[in-house]
Amino acid sequence: MTTETAPSPLVIRHDHDGYVTLVMSNPARRNALSGAMMTALQDAFDQIANSPDIRCVILAAEGPVFCAGHDLKEMGGISECDQHASLFAQCSRLMMRIVSLPQPVIARVRGMATAAGCQLVASCDLAVAASTAKFATPGVNIGLFCSTPMVALSRNIARKHAMRMLLTGDPVPAELAFSMGLVSDVVDEADLEAATAVLAAGIAARSGMTVRLGKQAFYKQIEMPLSDAYGYASDVMTANMQKHDAREGIDAFVEKRHPQWRHE
């Protein structure tokens, strides 16, 4: 009698004090965003969204490639237009889930992040990259313009930087990606995990209510005209001032002590 072994999970979760690390775990396929991988990530983020004790998320990957984008073998095996549309719609939902997630998401990038993998980095709130990491939107090289990655990319970097990446497909090294605004931090590869953990732990140590409120407000106001943005932000700060943690934080500052957050 033979026993079947359960398939290895595509996303592995590690819980820490106040934050979680999600690790894409399909290095043999370069952590490609297959339908199954996207479902696993979506499920993990949906679960985290409803977890008030989690105040930050690190998104990482096993192996030498962070994420190679869509699984071209899977895409090539699909012939129906509606199947392709379903796959791209699934990818868009995943990227929007990251943006709408109450908790900040930090991409921890080692190796290459290409096409939808670059989109994944651009969709995260912060990105810490190893100095050896590279980023590219090379769809133009195979006759498939990186149109959906373009959405996140063009909301992170200046137009001409984005167009250069999209039109040439050339890989961008980490330091240049930093200067363009695609990543927030660049560190030596040996320090990548530790530096990202310090950043996540620092965010998790803040008031979870304040961080959730601030992330939501950031993405909402950035699409508004200037006067509307100020009106909205003023309303947010007014509501924020009524919260326990705001009152506690101000009192602690005046009294020169550490605040005791209730995350509410």
From TrEMBL:
InterPro entries hit by this protein: ClpP/crotonase-like_dom_sf, Enoyl-CoA_hydra/iso, Enoyl-CoA_hydra_C, Mitochondrial_ECH-domain
GO molecular function: hydro-lyase activity
One Pfam short name: ECH_1
Keywords recorded for this protein, A-Z: Fatty acid metabolism, Lipid metabolism, Transit peptide
Xref: Gene3D superfamilies: 2-enoyl-CoA Hydratase, Chain A, domain 1 (3.90.226.10), Lyase 2-enoyl-coa Hydratase, Chain A, domain 2 (1.10.12.10)
Family: Belongs to the enoyl-CoA hydratase/isomerase family.
Protein name: Enoyl-CoA hydratase domain-containing protein 3, mitochondrial
Annotated source species: Thalassospira profundimaris
